[in-house]
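Suppose you are handed only two things: the residues of a chain and a line of SMILES describing fe (ii) ion. What would the bound structure be? This form records exactly that question and the answer produced for it, so the two can be stored side by side and reused later without any lookup.

QUESTION INPUTS
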Amino acid sequence: MEKIKQKIFDKYIVKDGLDGLIHIEQTAHFGELIALGEDPSIVNAVWVGSLLHDIGRGRHLHKESHGEAGYRFLMENVDWLYEILSPFGFDIETVEKILLAVRDHDKGLVTNDKIIGSIWDSDRLSLYRFKGREVKTELLSTETAKLLKDYAKQYIAETAVEKGDKDLWKEQGLMM
Ligand SMILES: [Fe+2]
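ANSWER OUTPUT
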């Protein structure tokens, strides 16, 4: 698992700051928790989808959202993607859901699909990294994520301390 995470992180262009790898770590953690609450059989798909969701940041072409850029990146690098996903033995439908979750995660949508919804919600719960930002319950797709809002806020403040990114997070008012 750690190796897979590292391979994905190596491909990220935006590694620092509030949208950087700390954010991706947070979403992977939230994704695991959400999936466990929704359906334990989807934990791996949600975990890896959360790790991949922002891979398009810094890659978007004219008029493309970073979600669309991430989708394009994955389509253009299918051999690499195969290496990442094959250890999990997902069926085609699950792989398609992961790709759609990446493509549309920044469009403000909700869904009944548990894999896609859990990936989107993992990203939404990480919105607490921005000062004064609230997570709108109506924009969460899963019941589990709705229950995790307070936990997410607390976890983000603590992660910032652990990662030593104190000044950045202090600016955001997430730490004392
Ligand atoms: Fe994100």
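WHAT STANDS OUT: Residues 21-38 form the longest helix (18 residues). The chain has ten helices and no strands.
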